[in-house]
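Lab notebook, bench 4. The sequencing result for the construct came back, and we need a structural model before the next group meeting so we can plan mutations. Quick request posted to the team channel:

Model the 3D structure of this chain.
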Amino acid sequence: MNFYEEYAQINGIKQYFLHCPAPDSNVVLLFLHGGPGFTAAYRAYLLTAEELPCSLVFYDQRGTGKTLMQNKTDKPAFSELLEDLHATVAYLKKKYKTDKLLLLGHSWGSVLGSEYVLRHGNTVSAYIGMGQVVNMLRGEAAAFAELGQRIQVKNRKRDVRKYEKLEQRLSFKSRKAFKKSRQGLTMLQMRYGFYPDLFAGIKDVLKSPVFHLKDIPFLILSLLKSSKLDLYLWEYDAVAQPAFPLPVYYILGENDWQVPSTVAAQFFDKISAPGKHLFWIPDAGHSADTDNPVAFWNAVKDIIEWENL
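Done. Here's the predicted structure in token form:
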């Protein structure tokens, strides 16, 4: 992977950037990582293509990863991340000498990205949502219903009983009620393929050319720093603002039940925007880009062509 790292001064602090330049393109794709608090830079090498259709840029948000390593910051607020992103967009457009910037938000990053373009849609060419969050509780309810169908097909009596008990006590009324009542749910979901292989994910990080052992404490600390943002995530409801001032694209994994694609697709139908298109990525879950890089890059190429970038 052709890449280089840098720390740039953004809103008064040093923030970490990973650049994967494409010398033959003047389009930049800015990737907003998920979590909150999960840097995506370690997995950038998995997106290696023979020839990138655009320059690809990752950065660790305030309070996360290598940015946190350089700054002993308090728990970041959502407003700070919005200000950081606004400054980052301006910085990258100047650095790459282009106005052609695509903003991609993944998972938690799709909340940050969506809210940003609703406020500053004139600063980027288009918004791309991947693993798009619409409403966390609605998503959990959809995932639970899917779990019930999978258990019914397998008809393992022990799992049927566990599901029925969960069904009786599980509450989707609030974040607090859901988390209090979900004991045993994660184990069932893991058994029925709702989450990627944890050990494979760890191996991917360890193989990354930008991962170092000194990063490990900050991976853990990033999660502790994200409590304010986690509250924002669970209170977020995209349905409140379905009108966007710029073209909107969704790239959704067909097998994403961490943040159910079915919920995102239903919301996408209601979106009003100058242009929009939904890409379904086969053989992919929540991380559609690294699950199926070929299909992901084909979608990005289509977006670049359709937007005449």
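The radius of gyration is 19 Å.
Will bring this to the meeting.
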